[in-house]
Amino acid sequence: MSHIPSRFQPTRRAALAAVSGIAALGLLTACGYGSKSTSTSAAAPAGSAAASGSTAALSASTVRIGYFANLTHATPLIGVQDGLFAKALGSTKIQTQIFNAGPSEIEALNSGAIDIGWIGPSPAINGYVKSKGAALKIISGATSGGAELVVNPAKIKSVADLKGKKIATPQLGNTQDVALLNFLAGKGYKVDAKTGAGDVSVVRTDNSLTPTAYSAGQIDGAWVPEPTASKLVAEGAKVLVDEKSLWPDGKFVTTNVIVSQSFLKAHPDVVKAVLTASVDTNAWIAANPDQAKKDANAALLALTKKALKDKVLDTAWSELAVTNDPLASTLKEEAQHSVTAGFISQPDLSGIYDLTLLNEVLAAKGQPKVSAAGLGTE
């Protein structure tokens, strides 16, 4: 990956070695919170500013970060692999865990297994509400878009044809699961949120298994994030609903960054360093979209031992956009989707955001402030 800017080159080789370690460790530790729950450690290499002592050590020796092997988590996929996170964190080591879907990641955050995570809005909302506002804070946006309902065109040609069909989602209560249930309810279909039984059968399936299930005829479609949606399209599926079409201006929060409130209180300097890495990574992705796409694919190869085909990668990448803005106004609407789906009662989301550190990072880089839409500090 020779096109990474030179200022990132010193950390890249060590980071690539660390990501390779993730894939190997995944074979040993896949029994954890997620279907691909893995961990590794990385620190700034010798010769970097942090290693040479020119950067003050942060308050935590290690930060544990969770994310998915999905393109909708492009920021940590690229930022960890390419060394931007190690650069920002200096001597603080990075431990990563890879998850299939958000509910498992919330469980890990609540248990103290991770400190910071990239995650969809629905699990973040559920985690906040169920803890009565004590478990987590949303501290940044990450991704908008990148989720579609794709179906077998021989069986489903319109929304009316969904009745009696089997549609997969990544996990009970995850963001795409809630989106599908809300969509079906809006079309008059009745489905039990917990069991998935009803007019349409909602089949919770690990993203890694969904393409095989589709090819085998075990499901008729899926509401899934990228790149899983584009993998199904490559298998002959068609996009019935692009979720962007359901939102004003096509923008909606797909991935947020969350933090354990206890970790935020104890180590705000570490959290700010992670946010600095996130903002820097998003800026690099925006400036280098073609190379970023290749680097994300390299990270997926290291994590899953299988790279995306060029056509799948190109299609999937075009469906999403990285963003520092948490798009807080759309979170309010996603919360109502969880209510409609039957996962939560009317929630009180006041205080769910703490964008103070993010806005400090953005201000230092001359970028505009982002809004919590009245749902927290900024």
Automatic annotation (TrEMBL):
Belongs to the CmpA/NrtA family. Belongs to the bacterial solute-binding protein SsuA/TauA family. The keyword Cell inner membrane applies. The lineage of its organism: Bacteria, Bacillati, Actinomycetota, Actinomycetes, Kitasatosporales. Gene3D superfamilies: Periplasmic binding protein-like II. This is Aliphatic sulfonate ABC transporter substrate-binding protein. It comes from the Bacteria. InterPro entries: ABC_SsuA_sub-bd, NrtA/CpmA_ABC-bd_dom, TAT_signal. CDD domains: PBP2_NrtA_CpmA_like. Its main location: membrane. Keywords: Cell inner membrane, Cell membrane, Membrane, Signal, Transport. It is found in: Cell inner membrane; Periplasm.
